[in-house]
Design goal:
Helix content: 25-40%
Bound molecules: guanosine-5'-diphosphate, zinc ion
Oligomer: single chain
Largest sheet: 5 strands, mixed, barrel
């Protein structure tokens, strides 16, 4: 069965026949599952790889292409992670380390629900996160069944106004409407993920795409030998049409902190205007000749969108600050340790 699956070789330019290369299809704490044209194996990173790892990002993640060592029946080792085309990271304000969620995703479907939870800022935030990692975002407006066609159209134009040329598909994972349009977007051998807050319907959509109750049934079925806790692992699902979907629980509270690149991409038109401001500390509120102020007044820039831009930027700056502070503190700590050592040396003579 494993042999029939397109792991995305083409999209990444990997030679199918090169059996020293495999793709990470699941991650479960320190144990990975990797797959290539020959088969599927449990894999651990070697001690040497771990030793060389400086941060969490040096470790493999689902979607990674890796070089594997010798195969012992159904086990192997991960020797090296190949360079990543795209990354999906979660960042926390106040923490240096970003957590790598997955790698080599082509498109992220950003899911938002069309009911009262509908939140444009949140949608935009996930777009920033995707773009920051080089991933193409596409928007999915789920739970279309909960609103009237008129309301749905309103939401759609709100999304289009806000996100511009990001593709938008309205669906109902519950009654199946729009699902075909979503499926049509999924190409063979390409890798996808679903991003969005808890409850917007990501698992329901994946189950629909898989045309089976894959995610839920896994919990009760032990026959696969994967145990009960598989749901906590991130893993790839292979769709019948040949697309690959990475299911990633834990992207619930995604921080955009430090996603400067993504912010720049998402708000390039605003940034263009900001660059024209006469003063670098322009507040775009009362300054004479401020193009941003003018655009806001004329409505060429949506005010809500601008506010979200400022909020995200502020968050990103705050993250930068804490990073700097931590580094400073780290340096001070280093100095302290050095002094203590010197002290000890003086006293004990070593
Ligand atoms: P997740 O946390 O994003 O994975 O969301 P789930 O897939 O667990 O869905 C959360 C809830 O929304 C569940 O009760 C689903 O049955 C419900 N749901 C998902 N999609 C739809 C939809 O299109 N319409 C409606 N009415 N409910 C939906
Ligand atoms: Zn200005």
């Amino acid at each position: 069965m494993a042999k029939d699956i397109d792991l995305g070789y083409g999209a990444y330019g990997i030679d199918t026949l090169d059996l020293s290369i495999a793709r990470v299809t699941a991650e479960h704490r320190e144990l990975y599952r990797v797959q290539n044209a020959q088969g599927e194996y449990a894999a651990k990173v070697t001690g040497k790889t771990m030793f060389a790892a400086q941060s969490r990002e040096d470790y493999p993640a689902v979607g990674d292409w890796v070089e594997i060592g010798e195969i012992d029946v159904d086990h192997t080792t991960i020797l090296r992670v190949l360079p990543r085309k795209t990354v999906l990271r979660r960042k926390y304000a106040g923490k240096d380390d970003a957590q790598l969620i997955a790698a080599n995703i082509d498109t992220a479907f950003i899911v938002e629900s069309a009911n009262r939870d509908f939140n444009l800022n949140r949608l935009e935030r996930y777009c920033v996160l995707a773009k920051d990692g080089g991933i193409r975002p596409a928007a999915v407006l789920n739970k279309a069944d909960l609103v009237s066609p008129v309301e749905l159209d309103e939401m759609k134009s709100l999304v289009e106004n806000r996100l511009g040329n990001v593709q938008l598909i309205a669906i109902s994972a519950k009654d199946g409407s729009g699902m075909q349009a979503l499926k049509d977007q999924i190409e063979r051998g390409k890798t996808y993920c679903l991003l969005g807050s808890s409850g917007v319907g990501k698992s329901t959509i994946i189950n629909r795409l898989l045309e089976e109750e894959a995610i839920e049934t896994q919990e009760i079925s032990d026959s696969t030998g994967r145990g009960k806790h598989t749901t906590t692992a991130r893993e790839m699902h292979f769709l019948k049409g040949g697309g690959i979907v990475i299911d990633n629980p834990g992207t619930r509270e995604v921080g955009v902190a430090d996603s400067e690149e993504g912010i720049r991409n998402t708000f390039d038109d605003i940034e263009e205007l900001v660059r024209q401001c006469r003063f670098s500390d322009c507040t775009h509120t009362h300054e004479k000749g401020c193009a941003v102020k003018q655009a806001l007044e004329q409505g060429t820039i949506d005010r809500k969108r601008f506010e979200n831009y400022q909020k995200l930027l502020e968050e990103s700056n705050r993250f930068e600050m804490t990073k700097l502070e931590r580094r400073e503190r780290g340096k001070m700590f280093g100095k302290m340790v050095k002094n203590v050592k010197k002290d000890l040396k003086g006293r004990k003579g070593y």
